[in-house]
Amino acid sequence: GLRTQISDGVHGRLVHDPEDPAEIAAVLDQMLADDTRLHAQGLAAQKRVFDEYLLFKQVKDWLEVLVGLER
């Protein structure tokens, strides 16, 4: 799930209880209060998606497996 995809404070923020509106509001307030950090987390999240979850990563992994089979 999301906890394996997002490192809290690095790629965004996670809440302990996703059904707690007060906790969600507090985390959103913290995020929106710091534009620089918010931008950095957005860039880190975008890079993680590109590096780990897009088709390019899957193709790279498969090519590494195929090269390993040739040896």
What's the SSE blueprint?
Blueprint: H1 2-5, H2 21-32, H3 35-52, H4 55-70
In short:
This protein has 4 helices and no strands.
Would you mind describing this structure in some detail?
With 71 residues, the protein is mostly helical. The N and C termini lie far apart (36 Å). The protein has helices spanning 2-5, 21-32, 35-52, 55-70. The radius of gyration is 17 Å and the shape is elongated. The chain has four helices and no strands.
**Terminus-to-terminus distance:** 36 Å
Q: Which range does the strand content fall in?
A: under 5%
Sheet of most strands: none
Count of extended strands:
0
Could you say which structural class the secondary elements and strand pairing correspond to? mainly alpha
Descriptive key words:
4 helices; 71 residues
